[in-house]
Amino acid sequence: MEDLFVLVLRTFDAMLRVATPLIFCAMAGLFSERSGIVDIGLEGKMLAGAFAAGAIAAVTGNAWAALLVAVMVSMSLALVHGFASITHRGDQVISGVAINLSVAGLTVVLGNAWFRQGGQTPTLGAEARFMPITLPGVETIGAIPIFGTIYAESISGHSLLVYLALAAVPLTAWVVYKTRFGLRLRAVGENPAAVDTAGISVTWLRYRAVMICGALCGFAGTFLAIGQNASFVRDMSAGQGYIALAALIFGKWRPWTAFGACLIFGLLDAVAIRLQGVELPFIGEVPVQLIQALPYILTVVLLAGFIGRAVAPKAIGVPYVKER
Amino acid sequence: MSAPHRELPTWVDIGVTPIVNIFLALIAAGVVVLIVGENPIEAVQVLVRGAIGYDEGIGYTLYYTTNFIFTGLAVAVAFHCGLFNIGGEGQAYIGGLGLALMALAFDSILPALLVIPLTIVGAAAAGAAWAAVPAYLQAYRGSHIVITTIMFNFIAAALMVYLLVNVMGQPGNMSPETRPFADGVSLPFMHEFLGLFGIDITRTPLNLSIVWALLCCVFVYFFIWRTRWGYAVRTVGSNEPAAVYGGIDPKKTIFMAMCISGALAGFVGVNVILGEQHRLLLNFAAGYGFTGIAVALMGRNHPFGIVLASLLFGMLYQGGAEIAFEIPTITREMVTVLQGLVILFSGALAYMSRPWVEAVYFALTPSKQQAA
User: Fold this and answer.
1) What is the per-residue pLDDT for A132?
2) What is the mean pLDDT of each run of 10 residues along chain B (372 residues)?
3) Minimal Cα distance from B155: which residue of A?
4) Is the per-residue pLDDT at A249 higher than 50?
5) Cα separation of B325 and B305, whole Å?
6) A275 CB near a chain B CB, below 8 Å?
7) DSSP letter (8 states) at residue B16
8) CA-to-CA distance for A226 and A130, rounded, in angstroms?
9) Domain interval for residue A24
10) Between A and B, how many residue pairs show a Cβ–Cβ distance under 8 A?
11) Is residue A172 part of a domain?
């Protein structure tokens, strides 16, 4: 029983780590998509952020400088997306695909030219990374049975960025639902013409939304490169941007439900690693690939309307043309 | 005085604007080459020499071209129906699976000449089936096809790893791949085929699939512009309410267009698996689906344009390998960068250059009112 408890805690611990980039990206996508801008490019922005963080941390040895530059790089990509889809009213999906492909190539080309390690950035020491931090009171609280163990094993001992991701959810919920900006953001994703009639600039509102989206993707990338790992590795985002997009849709474009979806998808991943080669009673060995594909399958099933209905913001993907 | 509204002539619209856009993408790529400290002019020279400078290079260029024609046509057919098929990647992959299943099932019982058409049908059917689910969900349940096809790419990748590692792989073989098909269950290589007529060319993976690809271009042209089904596809793509008013069922049309799109993507398997590898292996279609998007955008969704764009990307693929070999600071991924930039400039920013083109054109040709 004791072992099982620790196993559950360890899995929970792994889930939080896996879910962190998903949470950042899902919140990022929420801002963008709630304003009516489809964002397929979460993956690319996160990967660019990861590369920037890995490269800057390697050169300066400063994790905070790395975070700053990662956020800036990711935001500038978001601005490219905004420029194409807001200013030039281009196809938002095509723009996202373009960003993903360019970044996938560019990070390897630049990484190889600058560091000559086959597209990888140099391995970092602890001082240049966001290392696990021990929360206050672990020793005293940890002594308490059950609750203390949960606190010490699962909640404490993560990178600062994990806690930032957890904080990003209530913050997003507050901004989107409780502020004037949030109200306008939701309005512009549903009916931009009404927002325009009220004398609010649709363009500026949407630009702000994609910039917030870029910043959050930068955090996700930073966590990948210098929180979870000790360097940037080519293609290290490995489809997590798409999983985050799936989580956002699975969460019906709402912060808390999207957060829940991120946790479920993170849990699936954590469980998949544990279940490798394990025989389950009655079921037998579950293929790891099936568990890995589950987030995608679940999202398709949800989109098909078989478990609830995911209704996208009404004006999503439609460029706004101001009447003359 | 406000300038009178003037339309650009068609040849400028379909001839000049795309070239300006590609030129912008090339300039951006050139800047990247400058950033890594190499000479863009030299890079272009190496690229062109590697792609078309010698026999073997040309063979490889045309081999890649074949793949891009298939995925480019796939994206284009969906585009004509107003759908963005981002799932060419998964459909090509599963197409290869369908082909291999046919080949492995029948190569010991039927003569090779009968198995080959069966495998091609298998590739088309499997590709179409993989596109059919998102198509059905889009048409009848309103799920967004962009999202579902992305999801299906990942599901395809997971499925193929599972099948090749656990089910179809050979025991004792470390690399996850099936057994080779029986002798003769393959499309002849071009060097073998032309050898029959006494024409001697270098050994390359180029095979008869390229003829099939060109036939598909002709088929797509006739289908889209010369049949009632193509008319339905175009009508649904440009104006769905009008299509309904005209008695066209958009749901059936969407389903049909996506199935054809998936089948075309599935033919990548014909080139790679039946033409070159003669066995099913992991990741054989990697990247071709996404390149298809760039190809279709560049080729303006017309088969002729797609052939030209595929040739260009074939050259980039093969020449890119040559650059990576001769200029070690530039890796192969430079081609991916260029693809992304082409998609950005000729897709998402397609209208950015238009005012400039208009300004230049109108400056060069004085309007009739002024001339009179």
Assistant:
1) 80
2) 62 79 88 87 88 89 95 95 92 95 90 91 96 93 86 92 86 81 86 84 89 96 94 92 92 95 95 91 87 88 93 89 84 86 85 82 71 45
3) A293
4) yes
5) 30
6) no
7) I
8) 6
9) 2-238
10) 157
11) yes
Residues 6+ positions from B109 with CB-CB distance below 8 Å: none
User: Which residue from B36, B152, B343 is facing A109, i.e. has the nearest CB?
Assistant: B36
Confidence of residue A307 (pLDDT cuts 50, 70, 90): low
The ipTM value here is 0.86
Q: What are phi and psi of B216, to 5 degrees?
A: -60, -35
Shortest CA gap A81–chain B (Å): 9
Is A280 a member of any domain?
no
The sign of the torsion formed by the CA atoms of A237, A104, A97, B311 equals negative
- Calculate mean pLDDT across residues A15-40: 92
Q: How many domains does chain A have?
A: 1
User: Across-strand partners of A284?
Assistant: A280
- Across the interface, of B32, B339, B344, the residue whose CB is closest to A84 is B344
Q: For residues A55 and A121, is the Cβ–Cβ distance under 8 A?
A: yes
Provide, as residue numbers in chain B, all residues whose Cβ is less than 8 Å from the Cβ of A92: 348
Q: Give the whole-number percent of chain A exceeding pLDDT 70.
A: 95
Burial B33-71 (b: 16+ CB within 10 A, else e): beebebebeebbebbeebbbeeeebbbbbbbbbbbbbbb
The fold of the B39-328 domain, in CATH, is: ABC transporter involved in vitamin B12 uptake, BtuC (1.10.3470)
Q: What's the DSSP call for residue B187?
A: P
Is residue A166 in a domain? yes
**Residue A256, in any domain of the structure:** no
Say yes or no for a CB contact (<8 Å) between A249 and B36.
no
Strand partners for A285: A279
* Out of A95, A108, A242, closest to residue B344 by CB: A95
Reported confidence tier of residue A308, pLDDT bands at 50, 70, 90: low
Average pLDDT estimate for A83-106: 90
Quote the crossing angle between the two packed helices B303-326 and B209-226, to the nearest 10°.
150
pTM of the full predicted structure? 0.88
Q: Mean of the pLDDT values across residues A123-140?
A: 77
Give the position of tokens 């001697």: B200
Q: Which uninterrupted H or E stretch holds A128?
A: none
Element of type H or E holding B81:
none
Q: Report in angstroms the alpha-carbon separations of B170 from B68, B104, B157, B281.
A: 30, 13, 19, 11
A98: chain B residues, CB-CB within 8 Å: 340-341, 343-344, 347-348
Residue A62 CA neighbour count, 13 Å, CB half:
5
